[in-house]
């Protein structure tokens, strides 16, 4: 039986895109308390089903697919630029494809504006009308207003016209930064991106028998399966090891492992992989906040995801990327690397920061491990000792040395030199992620 929380989420999903909702409306429609409705609406906001805009309210928006995450809705634009909606509220859920700065003659502007774009312009009243007629939304900078007839046209066409107190350059910079941040978010794979969905997952019920399990298991190559109740809630995991020596008539609920380690769909793949290594498990169920099974991920899924991230297009550059891009291999020692301390790698004193150094060492260690043994690895713990501060512009050589390698653990020692002088030492322990 579904919970009130789940019923509210389904109700919100059934609403038309662009429809306005409120806590009181949901509470009245579904006969629930306003507290329950409020919590469900907040969850819907986390799931990108609705968006709350100051002075406008909460509206149903189209849930964006992962591959289009770098696109913004006009509702998000309002929040980013601290804007006020002057008209066309019915189109706030729509997605913009590009933005155009209106620093040109009106006739030239027409060539750049098309449906789905956003015109960023000051108090050029005729430009506002031209953009709306072409199917574009308008962002008026400098805190200026729009003409009443333009606001009326925006309402008729369901195309937002937004006013922001910022200047044109600042607004364009803010939007560009938001798109860039979403490109970085796109690069971060989540469990929900790689899971095997529940309708494609082989699962068992507690009252099914060991004999039935053996029959199904003999036809697959899997080692474990989730066990769920009739309402879909996860109650355990059953593996081939659990049923060894058990009679065929025994129920799975008696032999399964209860309360298994689980993960949510919003968890990063790296975090889930780290848990799988630490706990020594090959299968992890993915559950909702209410404990309902949404799917499963395997160790093989995580490995494929790690390989996929290395081939993704349109990635935004993170601080880690800037740091790692400084690495260059040393010609006479393939495991050692050199890097130059650039401004992005320094702390407030102008010397190499601890964060930048640990990022570099993590990557150098991973590289050394891959040269010895194919596969992925994750750092488990680290100790870094600065012997001498490394100044901006210095060239540093990192020499890794693998001290110990087992099936799961690798210990790596690092010596760092600048101008022939030892400036830092480190010891890292990595967990190997084998197939």
Automatic annotation (TrEMBL):
Pfam family, one: CBS
Keyword set includes Amino-acid biosynthesis: no
UniProt xrefs under Gene3D superfamilies: CBS-domain, Hotdog Thioesterase, HprK N-terminal domain-like, Winged helix-like DNA-binding domain superfamily/Winged helix DNA-binding domain
Domain CBS span(s) in chain numbering: 195-255, 256-314
The organism's place on the tree of life at top rank: Bacteria
The keyword Metal-binding is assigned to this record: no
Keywords assigned by UniProt, alphabetized: CBS domain
UniProt-listed InterPro entries: CBS_dom (IPR000644), CBS_dom_sf (IPR046342), Diverse_CBS-Domain (IPR051257), DRTGG (IPR010766), HotDog_dom_sf (IPR029069), Ser_kin/Pase_Hpr-like_N_sf (IPR028979), Thioestr_dom (IPR006683), WH-like_DNA-bd_sf (IPR036388)
Name of protein: DRTGG domain-containing protein
Organism: Sporosarcina contaminans
């Amino acid at each position: 039986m579904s919970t009130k929380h789940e019923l509210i989420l389904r109700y919100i999903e059934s609403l038309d895109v662009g429809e306005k909702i409120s806590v009181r409306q949901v509470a009245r429609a579904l006969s629930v308390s306003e507290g329950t409705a409020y919590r469900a609406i907040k969850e819907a906001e986390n799931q990108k089903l609705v968006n709350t805009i100051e002075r406008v309210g909460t509206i149903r928006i189209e849930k964006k697919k992962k591959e289009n995450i770098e696109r913004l809705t006009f509702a998000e634009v309002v929040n980013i630029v601290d804007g006020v909606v002057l008209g066309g509220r019915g189109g706030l859920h729509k997605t913009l494809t590009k933005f155009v700065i209106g620093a040109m003659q009106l006739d030239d502007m027409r060539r750049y504006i098309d449906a789905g774009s956003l015109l960023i312009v000051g108090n050029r009243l005729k430009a506002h009308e031209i953009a709306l007629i072409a199917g574009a939304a308008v962002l008026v900078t400098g805190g200026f207003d729009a003409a009443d007839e333009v606001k009326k046209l925006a309402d008729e066409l369901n195309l937002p016209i937004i006013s922001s107190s910022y200047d044109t350059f600042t607004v364009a910079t803010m939007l560009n930064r938001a798109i860039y941040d979403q490109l970085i978010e796109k690069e971060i794979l989540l469990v929900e991106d790689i899971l095997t969905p529940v309708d494609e997952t082989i699962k068992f019920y507690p009252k099914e028998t060991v004999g039935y399990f053996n029959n199904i298991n003999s036809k697959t190559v899997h080692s474990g399966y989730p066990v769920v109740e009739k309402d879909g809630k996860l109650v355990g995991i059953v593996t081939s090891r659990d049923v060894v020596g058990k009679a065929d008539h025994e129920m799975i609920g008696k032999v399964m492992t209860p309360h298994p380690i689980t993960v949510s769909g919003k968890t990063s793949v790296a975090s889930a992989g780290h848990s799988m290594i630490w706990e020594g498990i090959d299968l992890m169920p993915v559950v909702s906040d209410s404990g309902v099974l949404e799917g499963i991920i395997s160790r093989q899924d995580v490995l494929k995801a790690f390989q996929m991230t290395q081939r993704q297009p349109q990635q935004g550059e993170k601080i880690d990327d800037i740091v790692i891009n400084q690495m260059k291999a040393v010609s006479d020692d393939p495991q050692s690397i050199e890097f130059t301390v650039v401004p992005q790698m320094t702390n407030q004193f102008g010397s190499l920061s601890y964060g930048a150094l640990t990022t570099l060492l993590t990557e150098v260690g991973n590289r050394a491990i891959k040269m010895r043994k194919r596969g992925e690895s994750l750092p488990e713990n680290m100790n870094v000792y600065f012997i001498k501060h490394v100044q901006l512009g210095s060239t540093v050589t990192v020499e890794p040395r693998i001290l110990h390698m087992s099936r799961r653990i690798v210990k790596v020692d690092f010596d760092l030199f600048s101008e022939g002088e030892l400036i830092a030492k480190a010891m890292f322990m990595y967990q190997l992620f084998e197939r």
